[in-house]
Amino acid sequence: MACKISFKDRSVQMNNRQFSNLLALTLEYAQNAASSDEKDHVVRMAYLHENEFWPGRGVQLEEDFPETNERKFWSKMLFDTARAVFNREVGNHDHSYWQVQAIHQIYSTGLLFEHAVQQIEPKWYADTLDRAEFNQVVNGT
Prior knowledge:
This protein is mainly alpha-helical. It has one domain. It is 60% helix and 10% strand. The protein has a three-stranded mixed beta sheet. A hairpin with a 2-residue loop joins strand 1 and strand 2. Helix 1 packs antiparallel against helix 2, helix 1 packs across helix 4 and helix 4 runs antiparallel to helix 5. The N and C termini lie far apart (46 Å).
């Protein structure tokens, strides 16, 4: 069975196991990365993961994440989770067969959340670890 994470005409498709893994990895990262002001987003996502996002359901950003601030938070967390998987900081790394696909799906979902925010704030981009490193290495800032 498959599910998708969608916003308007854009979506990221995956099977149910990959969807559950995406949520689990993102929650694992977010639990440590969220500020005290952002912890409510993590608690809510954990609840949704356990109680609302059953196999095949997926996510509709317009309905499931209507608040812009929460979309911003999850955009950043998804991008940074993809980097954390790459750096082997989250997930089970006894085997690596799953990493490339997981990084793609997590990063693509981050882009989807970012796009959803940009419909309201066109010049907004997630303040990610990758963006910070790019600015330091390339721009010297």
